Amino acid sequence: MTPGPRDRDLGADTTEANKLCNKADARIWALGHSIPVHQRPQVLAVRSTLANYGASGLAHVDCAKVRRLKK
After folding, report:
1. Handedness of CA 9, 18, 28, 57 (dihedral sign)
2. Whole-model pTM above 0.85?
């Protein structure tokens, strides 16, 4: 049976792979590593003729109450 790419010895390649992983990890942490654990205020842009719709926070939007304003 002919040895395939998975059968070769990767001992020498792991050092380079570890260096690249550490470099990628450092770049990821430099970009931003925070995971928000609380809800942030929402900012929504809607038309001025729309009523009862906006940032809901922790509440659900009741679509039955969303209407257009009368002229």
Report:
1. positive
2. no
The Cβ of residue 44 has, within 10 Å, a number of other Cβ atoms equal to 8
Token pair for 16: 């380079």
The tokens for 3 are 């040895």
CA angle, residues 38, 42, 45, in degrees to nearest 5: 170
Contact 68, 51 (CB under 8 A): yes
Query: What is the distance, to the nearest Å, from the Cα of residue 16 to the centroid of all Cα atoms in its chain?
Result: 29
Q: Is the pLDDT of residue 42 over 60?
A: yes
DSSP 59: S
Q: Tell me the C-alpha distance between 49 and 68, whole Å.
A: 6
